[in-house]
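User: Could you check the structure of this?
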Amino acid sequence: MTDLYVFHKPGDPSKSVIVFNVHPSMGVNPPAPTTREPFAPGALYEIKVDTNGDAFADVCFSVQFSATLGGTQKATLRRVQGARAVAECDDGEIIVEGAPVSIGPKALITQAGDYRVFFGWRSDPFFFDARGLFNQMQFTGDDFFADKDVCSIVIELPDSALGADAVGLWARTMDNIKDGWVQADRGGRPLQAVFLPGEEREAYLNGEPAEDDRFVGVFAHQLEHTGGYAREDAVIEAKKLLPDILFYDTRRPVSFPQNGRTLTDDVVDVFFSVLTNGKVTGDKVGPHKDLLDEFPYLAPPHG
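Assistant: Sure, the predicted structure tokens are below.
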């Protein structure tokens, strides 16, 4: 998993767009190319929606992909509502079945009632001086992601499908092993796992937002160490970042971190300003210029 975005559909206040990006074409540290198969067949890609503020899912959108056959993959999108949305959602109401996955520059878009979906390679919209991060946060404006690709799940849906006007969203990836489903990754807000070392990071990625209070101390320690926060202030800031959920109110303008996240929100500047207690306020990188004005909004891949 790389990033989760949610924003109003341009020109239509009754619909929203969710972008769930996974499987980047290039690893960051160390830089190395990944496999070219867009999505893992048999894995489960889920977008969880909390409609009542208890940090448990009440609605889930899940996507599964077929094995690659003749250079192509197919996708199935499901929606699950109610108590079953908390667990793995490999069964439920089918919204789209057998949708083609885009592997080239042309965006293969599938319409199904009030939904539009896209699955496949796209230009990565994330912008960040990643090399500067690994050089003691000496940022120079070198955008590592400017020519990189990512696998995107883009869903345009009616706001009513979210289950409430104000919701919390996070995404996760699930691996199907012999003993059943195992969570591989999860996140709602960008860059959160940066706070976590070693075993704590593994526990965090395997955890659930409803359990995130247990990481307040770890987050606070990192804020003390990196930003020079007093302990009490560090705890206050850590609690603002947890649970790891992206909050979204369909009735309000979208701008991270207050509400949702657009493809042009400079989340890196927000994050490092908090992490360093205002000592570092930006990485000198701005939004990508190749974004599209229409669905799926992400530009064709570079590769």
